[in-house]
């Protein structure tokens, strides 16, 4: 289940004590995002990140169990992370199904590799988004600067008539 900011903290925030709510919101955000690396530095509603999960299932044949790794998308909304359906997620190269009878060290190494691939995917997506946002910010700044420099130009025409 998605962890959310408690109703009590939301109530105290509504009454004016926002620090506790913002601190809790940041803690929930940091559960899935490394600020500035795999997502924005502060919580943003609507932001999607991918996470790895694992589980055990019975093998289709025999008595063995299979350890299976999967990826899920999580959307940050309403002070918490929620499972969501998102296209274009990571496709890790690490195998994602193993017999549970393998030595634990091998499964642990595969799990670590799988999680690293998902993390690298999130970091690459954020790097691209951060660059896009920075470009938009610089373009808007250049437009504002040009408009400030050009402001009052038509007033100069009044001075020429004299």
Topology:
Elements: H1 7-14, H2 18-30, E1 48-58, E2 65-77, E3 80-84, E4 97-99, H3 104-150, H4 153-161
Antiparallel strand pairs: 1-2, 2-3, 2-4
What tags apply to this protein structure?
four-stranded antiparallel sheet, 162 residues, 4 helices, alpha+beta
Task: Write a structural description.
- 48% of the residues lie in helices and 20% in strands.
- It has four helices and four strands, in the order ααββββαα.
- The longest helix is centred in the C-terminal third of the chain and has 47 residues, at 104-150.
- It is elongated and about 95 Å long.
- Strands 1, 2, 3 and 4 form a four-stranded antiparallel sheet that branches.
- The protein has helices at residues 7-14, 18-30, 104-150, 153-161, and strands at residues 48-58, 65-77, 80-84, 97-99.
- The protein is α+β, with helices and mostly antiparallel strands.
- Helix 1 packs across helix 2.
- A hairpin with a 6-residue loop joins strand 1 and strand 2.
């Amino acid at each position: 289940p998605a962890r959310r900011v408690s109703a009590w903290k939301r109530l105290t925030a509504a009454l004016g004590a926002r620090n506790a709510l913002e601190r809790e919101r940041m803690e929930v955000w940091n559960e899935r995002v490394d600020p500035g690396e795999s997502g924005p530095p502060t919580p943003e509603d609507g932001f999607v990140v991918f996470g790895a999960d694992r589980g055990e299932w019975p093998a289709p044949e025999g008595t063995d169990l299979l350890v299976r790794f999967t990826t899920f998308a999580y959307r940050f909304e309403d002070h918490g992370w929620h499972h969501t359906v998102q296209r274009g997620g990571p496709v890790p190269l690490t195998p994602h199904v193993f017999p549970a009878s393998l030595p634990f060290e091998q499964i642990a190494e595969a799990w670590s590799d799988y999680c690293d691939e998902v993390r690298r995917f999130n970091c690459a997506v954020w790097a691209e988004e951060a660059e896009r946002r920075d470009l938009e910010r610089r373009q808007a700044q250049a437009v504002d600067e040009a408009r400030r420099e050009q402001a009052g130009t038509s007033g100069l025409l009044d001075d020429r008539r004299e």
